[in-house]
């Protein structure tokens, strides 16, 4: 698989976490690379071996070479370059990887490109790779951007996801994708229907930047566990002491006036 391979952490007999970072130099808005650092460090703290491979323009993608594929955000110009390359070189391998149980995390511009298509403010539609049943349309250069802190409640998770969004595109889901979560604070997919992100199989798309995973260690662990369980079914992670992250999350939720924890639903319905 392409250039930039790096093996981190002491070699152990335990399971390895193999991450493929798509377009690390092209799609990296708002520190999206921080997501890779968090995945790496949290796996290393458990004594796991971590391999991170960067795959760029024109490079082939090996669907069996990683268990977690990450694609970050970018503005329309970067997205157009990436969309062309994704469809030319990566669509089939990514679809194969997902069918085989790999995890995909796609943020903002990357999220838009794993859907059916993205219609930018200007110019022709960008084709997506069809990992998630959704489409995104930008209402035009004069349209209001959806910017600010974003907090969502995710099914099956005790605590909400916290992040930051900044997008012009409005995303709508088809019947083949479920929303990742319900918006508690912010705009989410389109600022209208109250949903944020999308998921299907082990593919996750979201507008949560910030980057996402430093603020949401439980979600990072969920992705690590799902990725590793592709080759080690039933794999579970030992918990880590996340007191500082928990305190930071409390401060952020209090600042935004967002109720924390499972009871959040009661506050929005
Ligand atoms: N270009 C896209 C939009 O504005 C994505 C922006 C981003 O990744 N932050 O909708």
Automatic annotation (TrEMBL):
<comment type="function">
    <text>The lipid II isoglutaminyl synthase complex catalyzes the formation of alpha-D-isoglutamine in the cell wall lipid II stem peptide. The GatD subunit catalyzes the hydrolysis of glutamine to glutamate and ammonia. The resulting ammonia molecule is channeled to the active site of MurT.</text>
</comment>
<keyword id="KW-0573">Peptidoglycan synthesis</keyword>
<keyword id="KW-0315">Glutamine amidotransferase</keyword>
<dbReference type="GO" id="GO:0071555">
    <property type="term" value="P:cell wall organization"/>
</dbReference>
<feature type="active site">
    <location>
        <position position="209"/>
    </location>
</feature>
<keyword id="KW-0378">Hydrolase</keyword>
<dbReference type="GO" id="GO:0009236">
    <property type="term" value="P:cobalamin biosynthetic process"/>
</dbReference>
<feature type="binding site">
    <location>
        <position position="145"/>
    </location>
    <ligand>
        <name>substrate</name>
    </ligand>
</feature>
<keyword id="KW-0961">Cell wall biogenesis/degradation</keyword>
<keyword id="KW-0808">Transferase</keyword>
<dbReference type="GO" id="GO:0140282">
    <property type="term" value="F:carbon-nitrogen ligase activity on lipid II"/>
</dbReference>
<dbReference type="InterPro" id="IPR033949">
    <property type="entry name" value="CobQ_GATase1"/>
</dbReference>
<keyword id="KW-0436">Ligase</keyword>
<dbReference type="GO" id="GO:0016740">
    <property type="term" value="F:transferase activity"/>
</dbReference>
<comment type="pathway">
    <text>Cell wall biogenesis; peptidoglycan biosynthesis.</text>
</comment>
<protein>
    <recommendedName>
        <fullName>Lipid II isoglutaminyl synthase (glutamine-hydrolyzing) subunit GatD</fullName>
        <ecNumber>6.3.5.13</ecNumber>
        <ecNumber>3.5.1.2</ecNumber>
    </recommendedName>
</protein>
<dbReference type="InterPro" id="IPR043702">
    <property type="entry name" value="Lipid_II_synth_GatD"/>
</dbReference>
<feature type="active site" description="Nucleophile">
    <location>
        <position position="108"/>
    </location>
</feature>
<feature type="domain" description="CobB/CobQ-like glutamine amidotransferase">
    <location>
        <begin position="18"/>
        <end position="216"/>
    </location>
</feature>
<dbReference type="GO" id="GO:0008360">
    <property type="term" value="P:regulation of cell shape"/>
</dbReference>
<keyword id="KW-0133">Cell shape</keyword>
<comment type="subunit">
    <text>Forms a heterodimer with MurT.</text>
</comment>
<dbReference type="Pfam" id="PF07685">
    <property type="entry name" value="GATase_3"/>
</dbReference>
<dbReference type="GO" id="GO:0009252">
    <property type="term" value="P:peptidoglycan biosynthetic process"/>
</dbReference>
<dbReference type="GO" id="GO:0004359">
    <property type="term" value="F:glutaminase activity"/>
</dbReference>
<comment type="similarity">
    <text>Belongs to the CobB/CobQ family. GatD subfamily.</text>
</comment>
<dbReference type="InterPro" id="IPR029062">
    <property type="entry name" value="Class_I_gatase-like"/>
</dbReference>
<dbReference type="InterPro" id="IPR011698">
    <property type="entry name" value="GATase_3"/>
</dbReference>
